[in-house]
Amino acid sequence: MTGIEERENVRGESGRGPLGSLDEWEDFLVARYPEEGSVSTDRLKGTGEFFRDYRAEARPSVKEFYRLNHAGQTLAFVRAKKDEYLGLDHKRMGIWEAIEFLNTLVDDSDPDTELSQLEHLLQTAEAIRGDGHPRWLVLAGLVHDLGKILCLFGESQWAVVGDTFPVGCPFSDRIVFPEFFEANPDSSVELYQVPTGIYEEGCGLDKVHLSWGHDEYLYHVVKDYLPEAALYPIRYHSFYACHKEGEYGQLMNDRDREMFRWVRAFNPYDLYSKDEDPPAVEELRPFYEELVEEYFPEKISW
Ligand SMILES: [Fe+2]
Ligand SMILES: [Fe+2]
Question: Which end of the chain is more exposed for a tag (fewer CB within 10 A), N or C?
């Protein structure tokens, strides 16, 4: 067994390590991209320290997670995972069944302080609904992380969550912990180092392979049922290098640029809707069951 495998195998159902819970990655994102007007942005803005120290502040488990992610997400790996999963022959289940399935993901975090996956989905959806957005965006909030069931299919955390980025072209240095890409075998493939790598300029993100994870997987599961504007946030919500840092514009087409407005509209609800008070699941359930029925058949393929 290699050192990497040993470290990864220490976790149980939460998907193989090194995070104690998938939330550790999301908490790190909130620290890196604090909400506008929050105490931490106000404190640091203008001090030159705003973008300082995410490295120093990241927990060792988060750093180790990024190290594995950046080393392992190669073009060949992404293609292999697409072959493995995009036939959608792993399971047949409805959206609520999938939510309940995802909620069985057990991790090492303290159950008293962490929200369940179901609670995060409901809080995201409720925050979107509260601001009067269209029903399909509320539904995107409800389902956006269901691709994390990949953990329950035995995938390593680094192949389920993490900021996504294109493979087969240069890794942007605006991706968090860019130094870890040195260990990625694709970094020494010359063909991938020209400005747009294996892609044509302006080809559109649909033609670009992003690092494999819950976003891309779920997009393929739901793409026949939801409007395009709901699919964009589902597919690209973890693509921070693009929607937050403005990188990879050379691969986008006009449609992407137009639709990214929904990715950006969605992102704050995902990152900043976490509230310690759990949502009233049973009270909300009838509304969301009806919303699911409006768009989805009873069972879909996963
Ligand atoms: Fe997500
Ligand atoms: Fe999320």
Answer: N
